């Protein structure tokens, strides 16, 4: 595979950055997996029209994320993140959301992890050193900013042709009322405040989702809540060992087959990536807040001001990092080798777990243990724009209760934008399955997941 290396010296202010960023899209998509045996293909319900516009994420299969957000599986605890965050010989520093104990799996966590790694590196380094940063997501950009401001000579290597990592806004004013967000964009009150505090105040550029409803085959129903899950988790606190959330529910006598509980678990998975069958009940992800804010602007603007003057090299995957107590050597996908004094690695946990970067010598046991102990969770998003709404509800959050649709959580953007746009959120094992579908099958699965709008008499095969 030949990889073109493109160097960007980002230094001419926001306008130029915007142009450069625009020039960096689209990124190469991984080839879809093809099945050899022809399978009977599901059909979309006629009651759900074909969308006029459609976009979806595939973070699970993207070679530069291989997952969406990290979480703690049963048996792991937050010290794994601290172990991963320990500098190696004061030469290799890990940052990125997976290394933050307070707010893992979030943009805030990525920013805080970058600050921690940059400060540790600055404390260990001499006056002016050559520093490499691997990855230009939130963590990489913030780390590079701080290290540059501290007087170091910093180069950022980004595998993709675009910046932002798991922040990805698709700006297309003609097609969409707001930019479809394929990565991070939903924030609780606290997260919105924390992000505005750390990066830039975006509170005026959000829409609020605060009215939820359930949908069953019989129509609109009561929404879901986290009460049964909270009760099971509380009971699991006195268990002899850390059960998964699903095991904790089973132990408390609740069946995960119960449609309302399954819908609650699907909401939890869609917002946190945590698979209830694997996630720790001792260190569980927070159940989603009742009010969620969605960003309505181009999220890359978060990072723009921090990019000013940085040396960012895109389309340059780092495939090997050799290190000793005197320095580091990076090998790029092109075969090129470059020497630095130190390196900050912000590649996602999924990439580290699949050994997308080789370390020489192998990382210490503590780091390898942490990488394998943490779990890489899956969240995928699908944006669908329709010519006409086929729904009448004003509720902004829909939970599908029952049925066998893959996507069980929908956000209705019509009340906020005036346009018939629905956003499907899917998490955990269902998200991994959704990401592996071909474009056609994913579109069918998404429409089939909206089949709860079908007339009761409809005979959908
Ligand atoms: C669908 C989805 C929804 C989310 N929703 C939210 C949300 O609502 N709120 C929230 O706060 N967070 C959310 N998150 C999580 C949030 O996006 C991440 O926690 C955060 O963006 C991670 O930043 P990072 O810098 O740690 O990693 P990344 O953004 O993944 O950056 C790492 C960078 O490293 C690059 N890279 C990988 N391998 C290599 C290599 N070998 N060489 C060079 N570069 C490499 C990648 O291309 C990437 O640009 C969501 C994530 C997803 C996927």
Please provide a written account of the structure:
Helix 4 (138-149) links the parallel strand 5 and strand 6 (153-157). The protein has 2 domains: 53-60 and 184-297 and 378-453, Polyamine Oxidase, Chain A, domain 2 (Alpha-Beta Complex); 70-167 and 300-372, FAD/NAD(P)-binding domain (3-Layer(bba) Sandwich), CATH 3.50.50.60. The protein is built from 14 helices and 22 strands. Helix 3 (107-124) packs parallel to helix 4. The chain is globular. By secondary structure, the chain is of the alpha/beta class. Mean pLDDT is 89; it is low at 1-36 and 456-461. It has helices at 13-23, 79-85, 107-124, 138-149, 189-198, 227-236, 245-251, 259-272, 301-307, 349-353, 365-373, 414-417, 428-436, 439-449, and strands at 6-10, 53-56, 69-71, 92-94, 130-134, 153-157, 186-187, 206-209, 212-216, 219-221, 292-295, 310-314, 318-324, 327-332, 337-340, 342-345, 358-360, 375-377, 379-385, 397-400, 409-412, 421-427. It has a 7-stranded mixed sheet with strand order 2-19-22-21-20-9-10. Strands 1-12-6-5-16-4 form a 6-stranded mixed sheet, with helices on one face. The structure holds flavin-adenine dinucleotide (FAD).
